[in-house]
Amino acid sequence: MKLNELKPAKGAKREAKRVGRGKGSGLGRTAGRGEKGLRARSGGGTPPGYEGGQMPLQRRIPKRGFHNPFRKEYSIVNVRDLNRFAAGSVVDIDALKAAGMVKNVRDGVKLLGDGDVKHALTVKVDRASKEAARKVVAAGGIVEVSPSC
Question: What is the 3-state secondary structure (H, E, C) of the chain?
Fold first, then answer.
């Protein structure tokens, strides 16, 4: 058997229904959609979440709280994660991306104080907790906080 001899299995391929092509085709006039109603119309069909007139689940469940559309979402880096950088190096957003510690920076990078740093580093981030800054400085490093956005 050669590639040019390959054929789909018998019955696997069917001719497309030619709808709305006159009475003789068997699918003329209403084109197999029935008479009237939602599904007979063009673009017809039920929208996602439609429950046949019953109040949809999304509207039945109570809504709570407040969702701030202007909330800033920071990528998080802990102090213990900085140990993979060499002593004396500058750790900024580009270095964190290159190391694979931060994937997509939305509103910036925030340094948190979980763990300990073992050597001096210059850390340039958008936000830093007091504890994280204290730990970096205690190890002989510098924390430069400058919002990029």
Answer: CCHHHCCCCCCCCCCCCCCCCCHHHCCCCCCCCCCCCHHHCCCCCCCCCCCCCCCCHHHHCCCCCCCCCCCCCCEEEEHHHHHHCCCCCEECHHHHHHCCCCCCCCCCEEEECCCCCCCCCEEEECEECHHHHHHHHHCCCEEEECCCC
